[in-house]
Write a structure and sequence with these properties.
mainly alpha; two-stranded antiparallel ribbon
Amino acid sequence: MEDKHADSPHKSSHRHRHRSRSSHRPSHRPRSSSSSQDSGSRSHRSSRRRRSRHYSRSSRRSRHSRWRSPSSSEWSSGDTGRSRTRMRLEPPSPRTSCLVPQDDPPIVPSAPVAPPTPLPVPAAPFLPAPPPQPAATGISGAVTGSGYPWPFMPFTSMGAGGQRLMSLVSSSVTPPTWQRHGKAWKAWLQVAGSRDVSSNDDIRLTVTLEYFLQLRDAKVSSSVALRSLSGVAFFLKLHGWPDNTKHFLFRQALKGWKKEHVRREARRPVSYKLLARIVEACSHVCSSTFEEHLFAACFCTAFFGALRIGELLPPSKLKPGGLLCDDVLVSNGSLRLRLRVSKTDQYRKGVWIPIQGVQGSVCPVRCVAAYSAIRPQAHNFFVHADSTPVTRFQFISVFRRCLSAIGIPPGDFSSHSFRIGAATEAARAGLSEVEVQRIGRWRSSCFAGYVRPDLLL
């Protein structure tokens, strides 16, 4: 009996292809009939589709495995062909510990942490908090301690901007003047005591009157009383109060005070002849020729330049001041001095002083030129052989020793005697008041007190 499938070439070729494909794979089921072959072919095609889906899912899983969570691991079941994701409970193996991130350590709940305490906001850097003043005085926040850059400075009501101006106000006067003002204001506050001086002008006027009488009982001079009232007036204006020191009674009382205590200035001037004797005595007082030329140049420069001691020399070896090396020029028989700062030039504008030569051994040009030829290199102009500057104390000490060497008591002279002597000699030479005022750089008629011909020796 012929096979019913023999006349069908299409089906025979299909069976041939199936045998050729299946010959390359092991078969797990026996092929007993054509129906079993057809069912095997269908199962083979379905298994191929399942395997292709499984491979595609595995490839997608391998591509996304590097973005998985460190606390989870993906694995697929081989017998079912499905992919599952489970939490990994065991620690990773040592082989993969360097590739797979480790699990985060468990968070152990601890005791509740108190919130951080907020730091206090610092005060403004330009002004420390002023100590409060007793409310009875009526001066709130008046700074009276000595640890502040401007003692006795009141606490202004203009806010932070007003307090920043106080440092500039304290710089408007010289430190010695500021110290005198502060001392007078402190004494005025002590007289005020517990009275509320900020509430009434009459109370402040009464306190000023008591302070004025206290100065009178202390038997101070009228000039000291005038300076003390000036300090009180400064702080009264600084508080925004009327200046009661300019009251008519106080002005007239000061005039009577001056008439009762007429005190003549006892400092004697250094005349031209006395200067020559002092310069000659330097050879007996000084220990070397260098020191002789040094102090001779100092004395002549102080006299002919009508200089204050602070304009000539520094206060000490460690503090700046005096004439510097670039401030002295000697040329063509003349001497020029530059004053960078002085008592009447607080803004440091500077001024050049020309000095002409004279005949004799006290010629300032010749003395300064002789000293400049042997002086060492130094920042200051008047220095010793070891380049240390000459100080005020050394100047006064040598000056008094020279006076004692020529038989003149040194108690009637001071470093200011050279400036007094310059004004006195200029007036004796017949110069006008304007010219005398220009020589000493005076801005008022106070130069008249420096002209003392009756005290010349």
